[in-house]
Design brief:
By secondary structure, the protein is an alpha/beta fold. Helices cover 37% and strands 28% of the residues. A six-stranded mixed β-sheet has the order 6-7-8-3-9-10, sandwiched between helices. It has a four-stranded antiparallel β-sheet with strand order 2-1-4-5, covered by helices on one side. A four-stranded antiparallel β-sheet has the order 12-13-11-14, with helices on both faces. A hairpin with a 2-residue loop joins strand 1 and strand 2. It is elongated and about 80 Å long. Bound molecules: adenosine-5'-triphosphate.
Length: 321
């Protein structure tokens, strides 16, 4: 059963179209990830789904309600964790949670009980009385997630849940997301971390320059990818000039990545190493290593989006975790 349905959804800012008529569905109970590079339209989409931005055109249905005209009703059954926290700096962790609970109309006794429960669940029970501004980045993100689920929503929207925090906090957050999902919460998250998409999501929508170019189960993406053969050659000399020559000599291959001394090729057919060795030898280039690569979601991402892994990695490194 679809809990989210999006049809021809677009958003323009002045003359710039940030989201270009996208379509996708999210099934009840799944973790659905929107994976794409910086500026792809992930935040714009999540903002439209949660009522923080008004679509320019298109339709949204969430939990059977109209997600545009009926957004107030929808907001009762969804939780929102924005990429930048919306909690109050001077309030304590506990008070922030109690305050959020009051915004959802929860009874006073229930608010405090739930806030205490969540602080414990997120290992923040020792710091619940500290002001939010005194929290570390990882603690802030955890409290923001706790605030997003204070009213036990059916669907949780998380925008870049592990960006800008340390590795251990990111791991804890991934674990929490999994636990929430196991208890029945449908999760919609955005990320530009391939590892988050791979570890957390049942299905992934690839979004690039405002277009959803593919939606698929992670398992299926991996299965399809295994059908490709990938080999990496390490060369003793610069191979960067050889791209065209390689592609004309071996028309069935594509080049996945290339650096001065390393080239990674893929082919839908099995790759015989000998003709490649002879090719390089003929150019007086020695192969120091040739190894078969088992495709990762990174390779799948490159194949689908055409975006070089190195470019995406640079973006990821640019965003301190
Ligand atoms: N308020 C705005 N006014 C004008 N342009 C905007 C506005 N918000 C977003 N954009 C543009 O829309 C495009 C999509 O932005 P969005 O924030 O949705 O991308 P994103 O995929 O979430 O990127 P990131 O991973 O960097 O957060 C970008 O080109 C961005 O500059």
């Amino acid at each position: 059963m679809n809990i989210i349905e999006v049809k021809n959804l677009s958003k323009s800012y002045d003359n710039f179209q940030a989201v270009k008529g996208i379509n996708f569905t999210v099934e009840k109970g799944e973790v659905f990830g929107f994976l794409g590079p910086n500026g792809a339209g992930k935040t714009t989409t999540i903002n439209m789904l949660t009522g923080l931005a008004k679509p320019s055109s298109g339709e949204i249905t969430i939990a059977g309600e109209n997600g545009i005209d009926g957004i107030k009703k929808v907001q009762q059954v969804i939780g929102i964790v924005p990429d930048e926290s919306n909690l109050y700096d001077d309030m304590s962790g506990f008070d922030n949670l109690v305050f959020c609970a009051s915004l959802y109309g929860m009874k006073k006794s229930l608010r405090e009980k739930r806030a205490t429960e969540l602080l414990k669940q997120f290992s923040l029970d020792d710091t619940g009385d500290r002001p939010f501004k005194a929290y570390s980045k990882g603690m802030k993100r955890k409290l923001t997630i706790a605030a997003g689920i204070i009213h036990s929503p059916e669907i949780l929207f998380l925008d870049e849940p592990t960006t800008g925090i340390d590795v251990e906090s990111a791991r804890q957050i991934r674990r929490m997301i999994k636990e929430l999902n196991q208890k029945g919460t449908t999760i919609f998250l955005t990320t530009h971390y391939i590892e988050d998409a791979e570890r957390l999501c049942h299905r992934i929508g690839f979004i690039v320059t405002g277009n959803v170019i593919k939606v698929s189960k992670v398992e299926k993406l991996m299965r399809d990818a295994q059908q490709d053969n990938i080999v990496e050659f390490r060369t003793d000399k610069n191979n960067l000039d050889l791209k065209d020559q390689l592609l004309s000599t071996f028309p069935d291959i594509s080049i996945l990545s290339q650096s001065k001394n390393c080239i990674r090729i893929s082919s839908p057919f099995s790759i015989e190493l000998m003709p490649f060795m002879q090719f390089f030898e003929g150019l007086n280039i020695k192969i120091s290593e040739a190894k078969i690569i088992h495709p990762s979601l990174e390779e799948v991402f490159v194949k689908i989006t055409g975006i070089e892994i190195n470019k995406l990695k640079k973006e990821q490194e640019g965003q301190k975790r």
